Amino acid sequence: MDVQKSAMETTVAARLNDLVRERGQLLPALWRVMEEYRQLSPELLEAVSLFMDIPYAEVYGVASFYALFENASGNTPMYVCTDVMCALQGAESLKEAAKANLGTKVTVHESACLGQCDYAPAVWSGSHVLRRATADDVTAAVEAITHE
Amino acid sequence: MNEVRRLLPGKQTSSSPISKERLVERGFDRALDYALALEPEEIISTVTKSGIKGRGGAAFPTGVKWSSVSKAEGSVKYVVMNADESELGTFKDRVLLEEDPLGALVGLVIGAHAVGAKKAYCYIRGEYREVEQTLARAIETLRHGGWVGPHGVEIEIRRGAGAYIAGEETALFNSIEGKRPEPRVKPPFPTTKGLWASPTLIQNVETLANVAILFAHDLHWFTAYGTQDTVGTKLVGLSGHIRRPGVYEVPFGTPMQEILDAPELGGTVSGSGRLGAVLLGGAAGTFLTPQEVKNTVLDYPSLGAIGASIGSGAIMVFDDTVNLEWVVTKLARFFAEESCGQCVPCRIGTKRILEMMETGELWTRTSDLRALGQAMKDASICGLGQTAPVALLSILERPELRHHA
User: For domain A76-146, is the CATH number 3.40.30.10?
Assistant: First the structure.
């Protein structure tokens, strides 16, 4: 366990190596780790805390504030906007479509307004946006991730 | 005929949005060369004379803000572009940054020169990943031109991570500083104590784009559109039951009905084809009845007379089949989830409102809702708590909207 933990610390430290170790770089640091691991587990936050020299409680307090850092499964997140404008255009059915063929590599999150109301309903995969998404689009996106 | 394209590039614009050619095509190179050769006071004087008001929602006079930061004591100052666009129904900054990212950046560089800042941040919401990449490339273009870098101003992009409240200016500072993005008590205002307690100029994307087009032309050109109260044009975001959802640039003073109906703008109501209501300005906006839409223009005095404001420029359109109680319940859930929990009126108030909405008590506990709403307006630390009850209270003032329920 200790060996594993130190391996994680080493990897995280390598990922953050060129960052200045100051409080103002905490959010960029968390993003880097999030992009690598798709989650911010207690072990990862501990590694960030050690590298940045910021108390764990502070790091946890910041990380847990943000919705995009909530992804305990470590799967690829898929954000279905279910806010007012997308709900008017059938977002509920997209959520069902995404959940129907989920498998083990994707986690579906409901999202507040994604700022894509002109292309409602919208789904965001974490890297790009599916605009005027259909149930078929969402199913295809889930399958694409599953077969990656 | 009511669509104008000044902030948004003209439809004949052919250059890539992030290219040096675009800087030239839009007159932004000229704007930079002209403005950066001026004394800071001259820049601020021009911005003040232009009458530009902040486009993030508060409509604070931009020149006054620039002057305050410029005069504030401190050897280190910052400028910040607020691109944390997370307001419900709001996507104008996204479209502006997709179509013309250099405009807002040029405004940011001019702002830095005017207030004496060497460091600038662009804070962009984490969900706008593709826009962030465009922005990064546009910054590189300005770096090649020598406007960004050690001899000009350094610009750093900061990516948010999904927190509506981080768009509140002091919460945004805390986010950049690596703290929890909880709003600070004001005063002190950002103009004297912002990022790392230094004087900070923070502006919305659209406001900065206005500065860029002002300096690319002149006061005479800039003031050709608008009303006596508010000069210039406004980006509005049409969504919901509307045939042509999208961002449109219209002069202040454009009739609300025309924005919905003109063939080059909204192109009329879709869905049932009959307007039920408009939610203007975002989640903390105001519901307008069809009659009010008919009788108002897009300007602060006209909308202020019926208790409404332009807010972020979001125009959410509902046909007459939509149950507005459902909309208000969704808004209540949004605020209850996004409240940072720091102050009691907002933390508890948003929850109580949500409970009342979920039990269908919108029209039966009106005096309780009004009292609670007033307490939140009076006692919350920041704009989120102060404005969370606004849409709800606006519907209580308009009982004719109840028949949708």
Answer: yes
